[in-house]
């Protein structure tokens, strides 16, 4: 029997579309959900790590992990140990000792105000509240004396704190010379005047960073009269150890003399010094070393010849208070000119050779005349003098000319006296009604 062959049912085959497989909406949703889940897991893991770090930091920074009983003393000791003393005389600036910050306390900056003295004050905002400390008593080499700044709560070990106000004066020359000494003291008078007439407890004097222990007699008298008390010069002689530091409760340092002061401020300072010394206001006319016949031509003119080395300080003050016209050889005695009335006249006499060889310092009394309100009426430079075996412009000749005798020219002196006396007479008559009042110190 023929059986029919069974039918084989084959499933239908479909041609699969690869594009439709990959872009299935359902698959896209699955993949997006998977990515978001993985991202969240990673973020949670990072957050846990950060929280762990923060927790560790907080634990380390917690006061419970600090030894609070030892911390203040530990900090004070570290501050005490960090105080660094530097040489008062910085030899790096030996070739320019007066430029910039100067070689004295070279790391410090001055306080500068328009028309006022340049100074440093401790403690102050600029010093961040730190005090000035000094160490060393060398009077031959300033590089062996030292300075530093220290906080009041952390002074150097074994340091002595000196109470009151201390004036620290730097003088590139010396304190015995009338002019150089006055130049060093003047800025302190200006500071004193501006700060309610605060007076110093002590002075510390330095020359090239070397300690000095006295002022000249004239300067000492002027300081005493100006500040109303004797000047105490600190020598640190009570210190058992030369290396023992000394710190000051309050200190003012000057190292530029009148640098920065306006002419008006200088005149005010000279007025204050003059008022404290007690000069008279309108001076009687007196002419020094001018021929008497010229003086006799002017009514009221009196001639007086004086030598400052024969006069006491008080006698010098009295003499200058009576002088309207001063004729003098170049020298420290001319510093006294500021004791005269404003607009008084000065004539300066020089030996041979000074114009070429003496340098800019020969004009110092031109400057002080301008600063103190005087009128520098000219120079007499003697064309004759000591013989020098070298050429006229050879600096070795200064050794021959420096202390040379000064001659005079009768015609020149007579003409000068005649012109100045006439001018003074006119000005005095104009100023009779307006006498200069005593300078006062504006204290609160």
From TrEMBL:
Organism lineage: Eukaryota, Viridiplantae, Streptophyta, Embryophyta, Tracheophyta
Gene Ontology MF annotations: pentosyltransferase activity
Subcellular location: Golgi apparatus membrane
Annotated keywords: Glycoprotein, Glycosyltransferase, Membrane, Transferase, Transmembrane, Transmembrane helix
InterPro entries for the chain: Glyco_transf_61_cat (IPR049625), Glycosyltransferase_61 (IPR007657)
Membrane-protein topology: Single-pass type II membrane protein
Pfam family, one: Glyco_transf_61
Top-level division of the source organism's lineage: Eukaryota
Keyword Nucleotidyltransferase: no
Protein name per Swiss-Prot or TrEMBL: Ribonuclease H protein
Natural source organism: Hibiscus syriacus (Rose of Sharon)
